[in-house]
Amino acid sequence: MGDSKIDKLGEAVLRGIARRSSRRGFLGKLGVAMAAGSAFPLLPVSRASGAPAPTPSAPLSDFERNAQSSDPLRCDYWRHCAIDGTICGCCGGGLHTCPPGSTPSPTAWVGTCLNPDDGRSYLIAYRDCCGTSACVASGEDCECTGTDRELPIYRPQANNDIIWCFGDSSMAYHCSTAALVGLAE
């Protein structure tokens, strides 16, 4: 059986490569390529263009359908979509301020709430006020359990079941604030 011209050409090329390179060199280059390939996904990339755009016809949650924007001392106030606890406004504080005698926790959880007035979603930072005993609110609608878009406990930044007073001088929970951070995009 005779060798074809393609076989002879292939053999000559491979023998030439074998003369000019070593197995160690090949393994070294392969290792560099593998290390660079695994680091490639870590490079900063703008993924905004690849993300699906939010659909304006997305179904509203029960809270969003019933939310109001006139009374911040009620649980159905639009900013309270993910609050869990006593509203600080009912205890002498405000939407984003702790009552006298309590201090804001150094950590917070976040929620995205729909404002019924403008139809836009906003990022809300919920922060517990700590340092004094729990507030006994005078209003019947001051104890809230908002679970809109709450994530499981293993995603603590969006879970409201945790008392967020850790890192403060006292772990005593008093009430919760709902500060508007900005427009959610």
TrEMBL record:
PROSITE patterns: TAT
UniProt entry keywords in alphabetical sequence: Disulfide bond, Electron transport, Oxidoreductase, Periplasm, Signal, Transport, TTQ
Enzyme Commission identifier(s): 1.4.9.1
Reactions listed under catalytic activity: 2 oxidized [amicyanin] + methylamine + H2O = 2 reduced [amicyanin] + formaldehyde + NH4(+) + 2 H(+)
Pathway(s) where this gene product acts: One-carbon metabolism; methylamine degradation; formaldehyde from methylamine: step 1/1
Residues of the Methylamine/Aralkylamine dehydrogenase light chain C-terminal domain: 69-182
Top-level division of the source organism's lineage: Bacteria
Classification via InterPro entries: Amine_DH_Ltc (IPR016008), MADH/AADH_L_sf (IPR036560), MADH/AADH_Ltc_C_dom (IPR013504), TAT_signal (IPR006311)
Location in or out of the cell: Periplasm
Family: Belongs to the aromatic amine dehydrogenase light chain family.
Protein role: Methylamine dehydrogenase carries out the oxidation of methylamine. Electrons are passed from methylamine dehydrogenase to amicyanin.
Record note on quaternary structure: Heterotetramer of two light and two heavy chains.
Protein known as: Methylamine dehydrogenase (amicyanin)
Source organism per UniProt: Novosphingobium organovorum
The organism's taxonomic lineage, starting at the top: Bacteria, Pseudomonadati, Pseudomonadota, Alphaproteobacteria, Sphingomonadales
